[in-house]
C-alpha cells in the first residue's frame, strides 16, 4: 500500500508538517460503465466493494453515495459488536462478521479501534433467565463464546451496577460474550473506503441514484444526479432508504423504517468497562474510549424517514439507565440523535438476489447492522460475484417471507441490537 | 495572580454577602452572585485544566454555556457532579470544586509532556497506529482510556429528586435578553398565555454586561427591571430563570430544564423539593430570542491561560467586578470589542487594542478609546501568544488589507491577558433541532436564522444576525407585532426607542495569519476542548475528509461538551478556505439536542426506583402477605410464586401444593390474567377475525379457549373467552400480554376494520379472580353459592354462570389450567380479599391449599398446556403446538395469520414441534433452556434439534417431566435425545406432552 499507516508514517509526516499525507480515498469522476455498482456508501456498501475487489478480483466497481461516506447508520449507531444470536443462521452470519472484525484493523491497515471488552445482556425475570440459558447453550453449540453470570459476578465486573432488590426489576443474572465489544464507527467506513479505493474501486460521493435502468428483466445501470452510469450488476445497500430504491425497480420489500435514537453523556474517566444491555428495561450502555457513556434506546413506534425521534423515548431510556446504574442520575446527556432503521418482519437482514437479473439487495438489518458490517459486505460481495448466495446468507433470501422460513430473532430478543 | 476585584456600578455580585469556597483543596473567598469562574478569576486562578489530547495548560475562555476548558468536578460523594462548566456554576457558601484533568497534578501533567510531541499526533492518529502487534491493542487502549475523560462519574445513588411538568401554552419565548423580554411583553399584553425561559439566574442577557445603551431613556438594567415588573403583573405570563430550553422537537414541543436548587448550599437544599425540573412545553408559537455568542479569533497559542473572549473579559468586569488582567491586549476584527477595551481602560487597566481592519472601528469609537488612553494598532493581528501556564505577551504582525496575509512584523507586546473577538455567532441550535437550516450572512459573518422563521417558530433579535440593540429591538417588535396581528390581537404600539450608532463593518477573518504555511507555526486552536488546531482541519481535507461532517468526525471539531459554540464557525471558515469554497457552500454540521448538557435524572424525572414502572398488586395481596408468600415478577405484576410453610424451600412447598390440589383442593389468585370486555353487534365477527378458531356458534353461558396469531401465523397470546350474551364477551389474555393484546385489538379495529361495531374495555383491574382447583372444588363452591346449580351436567366444563358467591355478585367459569375440576370466581375487585378469605374458610374442611405460579406451572405442564412466551417464542404456529384443532381454516372471513399458515415452510415438515420429554433418570430435572441433540458425539457447530421450554419435578407422577420443542417432534415419540447444557448432556425420551389424565376425565368430573 503506497500510503501505509504506521508509527513511522506518523513521524515521517509529522516532520513534514503533515503536508504529504495522501487522500485516504480518491474521488474520481464517475465512469460511464462499471462491472458492479454499489448503491450506498455506508459501512456495508463500502465493505461490499472492498471484498469484491479483494476476494473476487472484481475491481471495476463504483460505490455511489448521495451524501458523505458513512453518513447514515454507520455514523449513528452505538457501535456494539456481538454474535450471540439465538438462531443457527443468524449466529453463523454474525460470527462470520465477528471473526472478520478480529483482524480488521490489520487487514485494512486502518485502526478501527475494535475493542473486545465484552457484551453483557442482563436478565430481570425468571423468563429472562430461561431465555438467557437457552441462548447461551445455543451459542456454545454454535461455536460462539457465551457465559452465564450470577448477579455477584456481574457486580464484580461492573461495580456501578445495582444488583440489589432496591431496583424495580432486580437483576437476576446475565449472559456475557467476552469476544463482543465496540469499535470506532466512522473509522470503519473510512477504513473500508480507503482499502477499496486502493484496490481500484471508484468512490463517488454526492451522487444520488434517482432511478434504475432495467431492460427485459435485467439491470443495466442507474440514473444518478451525476448522469447515467451503466453496470450489469447493481447491489443496493441503502438501509432505511432501501424500500425507496426497491420501488424504482417495482419491488416491494417487507421493511418498515423506524427512527432509532441514542445519546451520549459528557466525557468522564473510565467507569464502565464492558457493554451492558437490558432488553427488559430498554436500555444499554457502554463507555467510549473518549470517556462518554454511549446509550441506546428501543425503536420509536412510528414509522418515518426523519433522523430524529420522540423525546419520551430518550426520557424512558435515561430512566432505564438509572434503574440499572442509580449513580448515573447526576451524569449529564451531552448529545442525542436518531437514525432510520429498516426492520424486517423477523428482525433479520435480507441479503438476496431479486427477480430482476443482476439486481441485489442487502438491507433489513434493523437495529443490528453495525456489528455485521464486515460480514455483511463479505457475503454480499460473494452473492454479487457469483450471482448466487454465500452459504451463510442463503437463508436470508427474500423468498423466506414467501415460504415462511423465517429466522425469528424477535422471539428471543425483543430488541435485537 | 492576574485577576482582581474592581468596583463596578451595577455589578451583579453582593459585596455584603461574602462566601468562601474551595478549589483543588485551596480555600478562597468571593461573593454571592459570583459564578465559580468569576470567583476563581477574582482570586487570580488561571490554570483550570489540561487539554484533551496534548495536556496543554488551559484556563477560562468564556463566561457561560460556550466555555470549552473549565470543566470541573463539583462536590464529593453522593452529591458530586462531573464536568460542570465553572462559568455556569453559581457560587454558594462552602462550595467544593476541583479540576478534572492533570495527572499526577494539574500543575505537572504527564500528558502535557507527551503533548510536546504533538506534531506527531495529527487528526486521526489513532487510526494510523497502535495496530501492531495485534495483541497489544487492549494495552494501548487501556492507557488511551485512562488519558481521556474529564470528571469522575458518581458512585453513590443520587440523594436528590427530579420532576416533570407539562405546559400547554400560546407562546414560549426562549431567551430573556432585550429581544426576549420585549417579545414576552408584547405577547403578555395581548393576553396570550406566555412563558419566558432563560438559562441564567438573572434576566437581561447581554444587558447584564453592556452598560452604555439606553432604552426608552432608561439604562439597560432599569429597562429590564421595568419589563420584569410588568411581566410579573400579567397573570397570563410566567417567567422561569435558570431554565434552559435544550431541545425543540416536532410540533413545537420544547424540553427545558430548570435548576431549582443547584445554586443553594447542600445544607440549605429542601429534600422535599426536586433538584431540577424538566418542563415539557407544547406551545402554539415559539419565539426564539436566544441571542448570539462571541467567538474568538484563531491565532498561534491562543489557548494559553489568560486568553479569553472579549465578551468574557467584558462580562467579568461589569457583572462580577473582576478585572481579568492588569495589562490587556484586545484583538478584534469588529467594533463591539472596543466597548470591552473602553470599560477596562476606564477602570485603570492598561489596554492595547489590535484591530485586523486597516481602518478600525467607527470614528467615534476610536476617539473614545484614544481618550481613555488605549493604544490602537490598526491592521494588526496576533501571530502568537507568549507564555506557558499564563500569558506573558504577544507577538503581532502587520496584516494585508485584503488578503489574509502578513505584510510585515509587528510589535512584541508584554501583556498578561489577551481578549479576542472574532464576531458573534447566532445561537441557532433550537431552530435547527427539528430540521431548520440556518443561512450564512456574509455581512454579519454568521450563520443566522432566517427572518421569516418557520411555521410557528419566530426568530427575533441577535439570532437573526442583528447585533445592534436598536436593530434587534426594532426587528423583534415588527416580527412579534405581525404575529399578534395574525392571531387577531390588534396593535402592539411602538418599539422601544434606542439610539442607533454608527458601526464599521467587521472584517471577514477567522484565522489570523502568522506569515507561515499552515502547520509550520504555533498551533492555533479552533476547538479548545478537542485540541483541534487550524492545521488539523487542513490535514483532514488534504486526506480527502472534505464533507464538513467528515472534517468534524475526523478531527473531533465541535464534538465536545460545549458542542462547538465557540469553534463551529471558525472551523467551517477554515475548512472553506482549505476547500476553496464559500462558507455558505460548506454549510454546517447538524445541530442536535441538547443545547447544553442535561442531567439524566432530570430526563427520567419521577420515573425512577419504585416508580420506574408501576408495580401492580392484586386485591388479595394482603392475604398473600399474611400467608408469607414468596413472589415472582410477571410483567408489572407481583404474583405469589409459592407459599412456603416454615422450613420449606421452593421444591418442598411446590410438591405439597401440587399434591393437595390434585388430591383435594387448591386455590390460586388468577386476578392478573388480562381481561377485556368485548361488546357490540359485531363482537362475534371481530373475535372470528382476531382469533384463529371459530366463534360463530358459541352460545351465551359457554366459554372457549382461543389462540391469537400474529400476521405471521405464529401464536402471540391465548386465553379463554366467555360468551355473556350474543353481543357481549369476556376475553381473558395472558398476564404479561394484556396491554399488548388490548392495543392489538384496537389497532386492527381502528386501522383495518373500522366498519365493525364493537368496542373494548380493559377490565383486568375491575375483577378479582379466585381459581378453586381440585376434586373437592365443587363442594367448596356449593358452600359459598346457592343460586348456581353446580351439578356435573347442569354446569359443565367450559360453561360460565352468573350468580351470588359469598353474598357477592359473581361470574363463575368452569375452566381449568390444571386438568382438574376447577372454577374461576370473578367478583368486583374491591371485594377480592374478602372473597379469597371466604373461599379459604369454606375450603378449610378440605384442607384447601393456596398455591402460586410455580405450582400452576407444574400442574399445567403435567397436562401439556403451554404458556405463551415460555413454551412459545413467536416462532411457533398452532400446528407446531399440536393445536390445529384451534384453527378454523373454514371460517368465511380470513383471520389474522391464516394466509401465513399456508406458506410452504410453515405448513411443511422439519419444523420444531411441542413434545414431552422424560429424562431416563427420573430424578434428573432438565435445565430449562438446554438444547437438544440427536447424538452425544455432535461436534461444534452442532445440529441442534430444539430446546427444553419447561421442566419440573412432578410430585404427582413422582418423577421429572419436561416440555420441549423438537424438530419434527410429533414423529419422534419414543426416540432418545440428548439434552445439553453448559457442556453436559443428559439422555431423555421423547413422549407426548400430556403426562397426566390424557383422556381428560378429571376436568370433566
TrEMBL record, chain A:
Keyword flag rRNA-binding: no
Keywords: Cytoplasm, FAD, Flavoprotein, FMN, Nucleotide-binding, Oxidoreductase
Main location: cytoplasm
Compartments, as annotated in UniProt: Cytoplasm
Domain named Rhodanese: residues: 36-80
InterPro entries: FAD-dep_OxRdtase, FAD/NAD-bd_sf, Rhodanese-like_dom, SoxB
Cofactor annotation: FAD; FMN
Pfam families reported in the protein's UniProt record: DAO (PF01266)
GO biological process: tetrahydrofolate metabolic process
Superkingdom of the organism of origin: Bacteria
Catalytic reactions of this protein: sarcosine + O2 + H2O = formaldehyde + glycine + H2O2; sarcosine + (6S)-5,6,7,8-tetrahydrofolate + O2 = (6R)-5,10-methylene-5,6,7,8-tetrahydrofolate + glycine + H2O2
Gene Ontology CC entries for this record: cytoplasm
Enzyme Commission designation: 1.5.3.24
GO terms of molecular function: nucleotide binding; sarcosine oxidase activity
Family the UniProt entry places it in: Belongs to the SoxB family.
PANTHER family in alphabetical order: FAD-DEPENDENT OXIDOREDUCTASE DOMAIN-CONTAINING PROTEIN 1 (PTHR13847:SF287), SARCOSINE DEHYDROGENASE-RELATED (PTHR13847)
Name the record gives this protein: Sarcosine oxidase subunit beta
Organism (species): Aquitalea palustris
Lineage, broadest ranks: Bacteria, Pseudomonadati, Pseudomonadota, Betaproteobacteria, Neisseriales
From TrEMBL, chain B:
Annotated Pfam families: Fer2_4, GCV_T, GCV_T_C, Pyr_redox_2, SO_alpha_A3
SoxA A3 domain sequence ranges: 523-605
Gene3D superfamilies in alphabetical order: 2Fe-2S iron-sulphur cluster binding domain, sarcosine oxidase, alpha subunit, N-terminal domain, BFD-like [2Fe-2S]-binding domain, FAD/NAD(P)-binding domain, Probable tRNA modification gtpase trme, domain 1
InterPro entries tied to this protein: 2Fe-2S-bd_N, BFD-like_2Fe2S-bd_dom_sf, FAD/NAD-bd_sf, FAD/NAD-binding_dom, GcvT/YgfZ/DmdA, GcvT/YgfZ_C, GcvT_C, GCVT_N
All residue ranges annotated as the Aminomethyltransferase C-terminal domain in the record: 912-997
This protein's record includes keyword Oxidoreductase: yes
UniProt keyword annotations, A-Z: Oxidoreductase
SUPFAM superfamilies with a match to the protein in the record: Aminomethyltransferase beta-barrel domain (SSF101790), FAD/NAD(P)-binding domain (SSF51905), Folate-binding domain (SSF103025)
GO terms for biological process, alphabetical: tetrahydrofolate metabolic process
GO molecular function, one term: sarcosine oxidase activity
Domain called FAD/NAD(P)-binding: residue spans: 170-439
Domain GCVT N-terminal residue range list: 620-891
NCBIfam families in UniProt: soxA
Protein family: Belongs to the GcvT family.
The name this protein goes by in its record: Sarcosine oxidase subunit alpha family protein
Amino acid at each position: 500500500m503506497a500510503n501505509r499507516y504506521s508509527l513511522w508514517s506518523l513521524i515521517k509526516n509529522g516532520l513534514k508538517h503533515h503536508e504529504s499525507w495522501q487522500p485516504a480515498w480518491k474521488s474520481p469522476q464517475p465512469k460511464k460503465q462499471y462491472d458492479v455498482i454499489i448503491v450506498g456508501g455506508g459501512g456495508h456498501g463500502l465493505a461490499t466493494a472492498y471484498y469484491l475487489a479483494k476476494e473476487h478480483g472484481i475491481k471495476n466497481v463504483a460505490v455511489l453515495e448521495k451524501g458523505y461516506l458513512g453518513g447514515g447508520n454507520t455514523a449513528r449507531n452505538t457501535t456494539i459488536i456481538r454474535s450471540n444470536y439465538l438462531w443457527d443462521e443468524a449466529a453463523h452470519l454474525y460470527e462470520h462478521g465477528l471473526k472478520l472484525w478480529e483482524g480488521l484493523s490489520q487487514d485494512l491497515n486502518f485502526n478501527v479501534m475494535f475493542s473486545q471488552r465484552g457484551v453483557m445482556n442482563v436478565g430481570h425475570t425468571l423468563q429472562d433467565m430461561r431465555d438467557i440459558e437457552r441462548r447461551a447453550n445455543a451459542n456454545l453449540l454454535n461455536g460462539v463464546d457465551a457465559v452465564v453470570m450470577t448477579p455477584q459476578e456481574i457486580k464484580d465486573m461492573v461495580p456501578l451496577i445495582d444488583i440489589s432488590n432496591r431496583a424495580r426489576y432486580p437483576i437476576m443474572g446475565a449472559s456475557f460474550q467476552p469476544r463482543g465489544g465496540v469499535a470506532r464507527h466512522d473509522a470503519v467506513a473510512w477504513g473500508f473506503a480507503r482499502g477499496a479505493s486502493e484496490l481500484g474501486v471508484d468512490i463517488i460521493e454526492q451522487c444520488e441514484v434517482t432511478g434504475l435502468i432495467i431492460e427485459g428483466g435485467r439491470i443495466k445501470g442507474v440514473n444518478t444526479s451525476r448522469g447515467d452510469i451503466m453496470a450489469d450488476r447493481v447491489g443496493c445497500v441503502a438501509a432505511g432508504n432501501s424500500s425507496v430504491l426497491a420501488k424504482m425497480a417495482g419491488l416491494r420489500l417487507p421493511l418498515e423504517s423506524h427512527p432509532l435514537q441514542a445519546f451520549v453523556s459528557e466525557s468522564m474517566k473510565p467507569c464502565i468497562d464492558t457493554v451492558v444491555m437490558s432488553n427488559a428495561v430498554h436500555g444499554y450502555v457502554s463507555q467510549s474510549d473518549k470517556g462518554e457513556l454511549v446509550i441506546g434506546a428501543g425503536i420509536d413506534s412510528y414509522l418515518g424517514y426523519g433522523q430524529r425521534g420522540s423525546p419520551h423515548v430518550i426520557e424512558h431510556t435515561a430512566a432505564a439507565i438509572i434503574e440499572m446504574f442509580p449513580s448515573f442520575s447526576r451524569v449529564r446527556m451531552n448529545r442525542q440523535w436518531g437514525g432510520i432503521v429498516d426492520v424486517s418482519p423477523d428482525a433479520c437482514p435480507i441479503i438476496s438476489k431479486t427477480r430482476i437479473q443482476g439486481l441485489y439487495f442487502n438491507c433489513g438489518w434493523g437495529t443490528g447492522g453495525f456489528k455485521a458490517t464486515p460480514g455483511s459486505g463479505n457475503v454480499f460481495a460473494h452473492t454479487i460475484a457469483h450471482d448466487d448466495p454465500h452459504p451463510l446468507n442463503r437463508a436470508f433470501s427474500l423468498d423466506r417471507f414467501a415460504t415462511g422460513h423465517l429466522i425469528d430473532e424477535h422471539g428471543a430478543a425483543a430488541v435485537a441490537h | 495572580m492576574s485577576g482582581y476585584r474592581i468596583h463596578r456600578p451595577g455589578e451583579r455580585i453582593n459585596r455584603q454577602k461574602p462566601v468562601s469556597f474551595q478549589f483543588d483543596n485551596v480555600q478562597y473567598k468571593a461573593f454571592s452572585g459570583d459564578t465559580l469562574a468569576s470567583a476563581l478569576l477574582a482570586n487570580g486562578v488561571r490554570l483550570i485544566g489540561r487539554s484533551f489530547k496534548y495536556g496543554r495548560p488551559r484556563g477560562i475562555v468564556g463566561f457561560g454555556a460556550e466555555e470549552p476548558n473549565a470543566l470541573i468536578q463539583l462536590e464529593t460523594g453522593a452529591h458530586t457532579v462531573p464536568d460542570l462548566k465553572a462559568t455556569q456554576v453559581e457560587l454558594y457558601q462552602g462550595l467544593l470544586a476541583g479540576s478534572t484533568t492533570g495527572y499526577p497534578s494539574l500543575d505537572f501533567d504527564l500528558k502535557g509532556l507527551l503533548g510536546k510531541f504533538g506534531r506527531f499526533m495529527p487528526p486521526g492518529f489513532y487510526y494510523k497506529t497502535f495496530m501492531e502487534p495485534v495483541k497489544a491493542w487492549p494495552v494501548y487502549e487501556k492507557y488511551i482510556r485512562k488519558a481521556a475523560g474529564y470528571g469522575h462519574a458518581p458512585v453513590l445513588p443520587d440523594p436528590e429528586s427530579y420532576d416533570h411538568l407539562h405546559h400547554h401554552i400560546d407562546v414560549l419565548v426562549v431567551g430573556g435578553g432585550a429581544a426576549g423580554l420585549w417579545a414576552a411583553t408584547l405577547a403578555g399584553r395581548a393576553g396570550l398565555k406566555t412563558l419566558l425561559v432563560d438559562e441564567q439566574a438573572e434576566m437581561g442577557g447581554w444587558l447584564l454586561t453592556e452598560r452604555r445603551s439606553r432604552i426608552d431613556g432608561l439604562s439597560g438594567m432599569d429597562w429590564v427591571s421595568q419589563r420584569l415588573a410588568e411581566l410579573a403583573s400579567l397573570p397570563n405570563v410566567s417567567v422561569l430563570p435558570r431554565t434552559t430550553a435544550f431541545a425543540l422537537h416536532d410540533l413545537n414541543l420544547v424540553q427545558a430544564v430548570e435548576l431549582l436548587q443547584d445554586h443553594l448550599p447542600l445544607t440549605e437544599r429542601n429534600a422535599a423539593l426536586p433538584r431540577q425540573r424538566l418542563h415539557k412545553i407544547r406551545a402554539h408559537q415559539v419565539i426564539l430570542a436566544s441571542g448570539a455568542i462571541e467567538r474568538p479569533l484563531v491565532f498561534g497559542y491562543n489557548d494559553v491561560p489568560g486568553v479569553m473572549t472579549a465578551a468574557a473579559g467584558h462580562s467579568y468586569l461589569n457583572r462580577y467586578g473582576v478585572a481579568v488582567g492588569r495589562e490587556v491586549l484586545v484583538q478584534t476584527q469588529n467594533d463591539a470589542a472596543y466597548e470591552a477595551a473602553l470599560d477596562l481602560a476606564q477602570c485603570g487597566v492598561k489596554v492595547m487594542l489590535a484591530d485586523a481592519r486597516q481602518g478600525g472601528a467607527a470614528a467615534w469609537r476610536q476617539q473614545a478609546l484614544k481618550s481613555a488612553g488605549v493604544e490602537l494598532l490598526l491592521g494588526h493581528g496576533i501571530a502568537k501568544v507568549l507564555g506557558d501556564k499564563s500569558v506573558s505577551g504577544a507577538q503581532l504582525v502587520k496584516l494585508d488589507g485584503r488578503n489574509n496575509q502578513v505584510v510585515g512584523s509587528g510589535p512584541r507586546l508584554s501583556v498578561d491577558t489577551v481578549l479576542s473577538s472574532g464576531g458573534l455567532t447566532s445561537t441557532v441550535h433550537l431552530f435547527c433541532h427539528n430540521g431548520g437550516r440556518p443561512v450564512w450572512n456574509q455581512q454579519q459573518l454568521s450563520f443566522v436564522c432566517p427572518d421569516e422563521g418557520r411555521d410557528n417558530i419566530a426568530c427575533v433579535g441577535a439570532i437573526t444576525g442583528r447585533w445592534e440593540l436598536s436593530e434587534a429591538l426594532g426587528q423583534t417588535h415588527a416580527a412579534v407585532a405581525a404575529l399578534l396581528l395574525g392571531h387577531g390581537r390588534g396593535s402592539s404600539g411602538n418599539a422601544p426607542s434606542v439610539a442607533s450608532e454608527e458601526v464599521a463593518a467587521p472584517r471577514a477573518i477567522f484565522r489570523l495569519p502568522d506569515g507561515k504555511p499552515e502547520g509550520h507555526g504555533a498551533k492555533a486552536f479552533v476547538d479548545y476542548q478537542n485540541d483541534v488546531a487550524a492545521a488539523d482541519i487542513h490535514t483532514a481535507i488534504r486526506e480527502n475528509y472534505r464533507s464538513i461532517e467528515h472534517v468534524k468526525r475526523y478531527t473531533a471539531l465541535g464534538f465536545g461538551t460545549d458542542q462547538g459554540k465557540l469553534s463551529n464557525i471558525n472551523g467551517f471558515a477554515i475548512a472553506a478556505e482549505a476547500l476553496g469554497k464559500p462558507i455558505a457552500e460548506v454549510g454546517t454540521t447538524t445541530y442536535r439536542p441538547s443545547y447544553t448538557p442535561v442531567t439524566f435524572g432530570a430526563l427520567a424525572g419521577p420515573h425512577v426506583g419504585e416508580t420506574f414502572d408501576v408495580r401492580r398488586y392484586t386485591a388479595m395481596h394482603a392475604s398473600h402477605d399474611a400467608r408469607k408468600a414468596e413472589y415472582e415478577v410477571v410483567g408489572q405484576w407481583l404474583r405469589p410464586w409459592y407459599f412456603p410453610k416454615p422450613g420449606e424451600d421452593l421444591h418442598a412447598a411446590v410438591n405439597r401444593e401440587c399434591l393437595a390440589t390434585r388430591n383435594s383442593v387448591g386455590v390460586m389468585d388468577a386476578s392478573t390474567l388480562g381481561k377485556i370486555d368485548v361488546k357490540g353487534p359485531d363482537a362475534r365477527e371481530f373475535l372470528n377475525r382476531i382469533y384463529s378458531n371459530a366463534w360463530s356458534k358459541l352460545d351465551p353461558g359457554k366459554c372457549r379457549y382461543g389462540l391469537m396469531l400474529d400476521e405471521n401465523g405464529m401464536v402471540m397470546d391465548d386465553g379463554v373467552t366467555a360468551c355473556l350474551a350474543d353481543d357481549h364477551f369476556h376475553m381473558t389474555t395472558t398476564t404479561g400480554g394484556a396491554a399488548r393484546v388490548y392495543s392489538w385489538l384496537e389497532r386492527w379495529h381502528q386501522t383495518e376494520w373500522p366498519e365493525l361495531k364493537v368496542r373494548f374495555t380493559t377490565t383486568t383491574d375491575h375483577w378479582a379472580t379466585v381459581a378453586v382447583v381440585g376434586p373437592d372444588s365443587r363442594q367448596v363452591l356449593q358452600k359459598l353459592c346457592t343460586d348456581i346449580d353446580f351439578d356435573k351436567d347442569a354446569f359443565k366444563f367450559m360453561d360460565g354462570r352468573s350468580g351470588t358467591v359469598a353474598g357477592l355478585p359473581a361470574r363463575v367459569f368452569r375452566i381449568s389450567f390444571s386438568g382438574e375440576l376447577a372454577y374461576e370466581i370473578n367478583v368486583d375487585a374491591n371485594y377480592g380479599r374478602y372473597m379469597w378469605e371466604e373461599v379459604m374458610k369454606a375450603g378449610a374442611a378440605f384442607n384447601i391449599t393456596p398455591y402460586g405460579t410455580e405450582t400452576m406451572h407444574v400442574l399445567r405442564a403435567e397436562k401439556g398446556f403451554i404458556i405463551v412466551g415460555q413454551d412459545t417464542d413467536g416462532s411457533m404456529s398452532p400446528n407446531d403446538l399440536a393445536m390445529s384443532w384451534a384453527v378454523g381454516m373454514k371460517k368465511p372471513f380470513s383471520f389474522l395469520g391464516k394466509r401465513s399458515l399456508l406458506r410452504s415452510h410453515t405448513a411443511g415438515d422439519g419444523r420444531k414441534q411441542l413434545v414431552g420429554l422424560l429424562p431416563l433418570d427420573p430424578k434428573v430435572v432438565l435445565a430449562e433452556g438446554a438444547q437438544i441433540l440427536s447424538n452425544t458425539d455432535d461436534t461444534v457447530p452442532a445440529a441442534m434439534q430444539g430446546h427444553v421450554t419447561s421442566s419440573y419435578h412432578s410430585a404427582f407422577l413422582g418423577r421429572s417431566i419436561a416440555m420441549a420443542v423438537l424438530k419434527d417432534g410429533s414423529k419422534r415419540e419414543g426416540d432418545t435425545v440428548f439434552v445439553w447444557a453448559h457442556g453436559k448432556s443428559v439422555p431423555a425420551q421423547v413422549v407426548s406432552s400430556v403426562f397426566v389424565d390424557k383422556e381428560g376425565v378429571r376436568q370433566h368430573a
